[in-house]
Design a protein that fits this description.
This protein is mainly α. Helix content is 41%, strand content 4%. The strands form three sheets. A two-stranded antiparallel sheet has the order 1-2. A two-stranded antiparallel ribbon has the order 3-6.
């Protein structure tokens, strides 16, 4: 049976201003047969773009939104009449007939499939003398394959690792032990880190911004190492990468990548800085998923950031903040944990009372109103009070355009501090200090580096960026439960983390049914 692939234009990889007239449309423009398609480097490039394309679908709020609602940083939110799915994540409840997590699973395996298609066909391309280009495409595709595997593995635990496109006889493969999956992930990331060049694409107007770099691969290796070794109590990353190697990779990213911290934390986020926004292709963005507003209301395109509408203020624009669904209301416990003088507090959260915004939760039908919502990623209005995306001819639900930051340099510094903590505490202290100094804009708020302080700094620095829940899980069930459990006296905010789940989310029920018994539900979710 012939396999067909969709090919897409390159707009997801280009650095184009969010309000530009020069957006490339991203409609599928042809169907081609894989058996006779891969002949030229241009063909391989189109195949690579098809792998990158999945990132835009993945970033619509699946792992990011679900994990934030499940963490101690957010509640479920949304409207009082909305479906209960989101509040169920907050309360660790499960309804099988809703096929929860279907998109997370399917998007991960769509990305894996597209990466494998490309990797299996690179040898058919006539590369001429440019073998380095073949290696580059292989490195990018393997990085993306590792990313899609890790996205599923950190959500579901045991998954089905695939280093090839499956045949009909493999449609009911069982899940594998974590060391099998993570050995593939580590091998792919190591190949990318060792074979990509030293380019840094975080430069204004760089057409390659959004593509995988050596520095992103090194940072991702460190992230995967920390999650795997912490969660599973291992000394190395599935026998492929030792702690010394992971430390060397992250130190290389710190010292030689050319990335750095933006001077003012608030200027990283459009809704926190407005006219002072530094732009998305700034020195701090080690890797981000690109979005733009070129869809102009076309639901068949996947160019806009469909996540942003979920966390924007419910019931209409308010001040400079554009309207949305009011999802994932922020836990006041998180807001209160920032020290006086920490600039990240005002830059990360909308404080309705503190900003003199008349937000009536009853009139707006806001569920689990806390007084705080996301400022990071919140869409904005123009001076006339119209959502910018609508003023530009787009739909506020699907055409928001802010990029989703997967790896920022501050995260690289904090991972370096953690990995160097035992072997080089002075270096760990220096990396940790850089993050604290930027947050307070002085050097008088430094603390002695420790694992506890690093984990707290990660919560404050990387709040609402999809990392907190997984940072808790890798510290163990006791730590996770102590953080997530919540009883304020108001029953709508009661949360009880169920340790019997081991921190894993439930598999989509459709996949269990389709597996004919080779896949069973994760513990605690039956």
């Amino acid at each position: 049976m012939k396999t067909y692939i969709k090919l897409f234009a390159l707009s997801s990889l280009l650095t184009l201003g969010a309000c530009s007239q020069d957006f490339l449309e991203n409609e599928p423009y042809t169907d081609k047969v894989t058996e006779n398609f891969y002949k030229t480097p241009s063909d391989a490039f189109e195949g690579l773009v098809a792998v990158y394309d999945v990132l835009q679908r993945e970033a619509y709020g699946g792992p990011l939104l679900i994990s934030e609602q499940a963490s101690d940083d957010c509640f479920g939110g949304y409207g009082i009449a909305d479906a209960q799915t989101d509040i169920e994540w907050d309360r660790f409840l499960y309804v099988s007939d809703k096929d929860m997590n279907k998109d997370v699973w399917s998007n991960a395996y769509l990305g894996i499939y597209r990466a494998n298609i490309l990797l299996e066909n690179l040898g058919k391309v006539n590369w001429g003398s440019d073998t380095a280009l073949k290696t580059r495409y292989e490195a990018e595709a393997r990085f993306l394959r590792a990313h899609f595997h890790f996205t599923a593995a950190k959500m579901f635990g045991d998954i089905i690792p695939l280093d090839h496109t499956v045949t009909t006889s493999e449609f009911e493969l069982p899940r594998q032990a974590p060391e099998v999956t993570y050995a593939l992930i580590a091998s792919d990331l190591k190949f990318a880190a060792d074979n990509l060049g030293p380019e840094n694409y975080s430069q204004a107007g760089n057409a390659n911004y959004g593509r995988i770099t050596k520095w992103a691969a090194e940072a991702y290796l460190a992230r995967t190492f920390l999650f795997y070794t912490g969660t599973y109590g291992k000394a190395d990353l599935a026998g492929v990468v030792s702690k010394a190697e992971a430390t060397a990779y992250i130190n290389d990213a710190v010292n030689n990548s050319g990335h750095g911290l933006v001077a003012d934390f608030a200027n990283l986020w459009l809704a926190a800085s407005f006219e002072n926004f530094v732009g998305e292709d700034n020195t701090e963005m080690v890797w981000a998923v690109r979005f733009n507003g070129s869809g102009k209301g076309n639901w068949d395109l996947h160019e806009g950031n469909r996540f942003q509408v979920n966390i924007a203020p419910r019931g209409g624009s308010i001040g400079r903040y554009a309207t949305g669904w009011g999802g994932a209301t922020v836990n006041p416990k998180l807001v209160d944990s920032y020290e006086a003088g920490d600039t990240r507090k005002a830059a990360s959260f909308i404080d309705y009372a503190g900003e003199n915004l008349n937000f009536d939760p009853q009139a707006r039908e806001q569920r689990q109103y806390t007084g705080y919502s996301w400022k990071k990623y919140c869409p904005i209005t123009n001076a006339a009070g119209t959502a910018v995306v609508e003023a530009n001819g787009g739909n506020f639900q699907i055409d928001n355009y802010q990029d989703y930051a997967i790896i920022r340099f501050s995260d690289v510094l904090l991972m370096a501090a953690e990995l160097n903590l035992q072997s080089n505490p002075a270096l760990a202290q220096a990396d940790y200090d850089r993050v604290r100094d930027r947050a307070f804009k002085n050097t008088t708020h430094r603390k002695t580096v420790s694992l506890e302080n690093i984990m707290k700094e990660r919560q404050l620095e990387l709040a609402l960026e999809g990392l907190r829940y997984f940072d808790l899980i890798r510290q163990g069930m006791t730590v996770a439960k102590a953080a997530i459990d919540n009883n304020t006296g108001d029953s709508q905010f009661n949360v009880t983390f169920r340790t019997e789940t081991q921190g894993w989310f439930p598999l989509p029920q459709s996949q269990i049914i389709l597996s004919n018994g080779t896949i069973t539900q994760n513990p605690g979710w039956n």
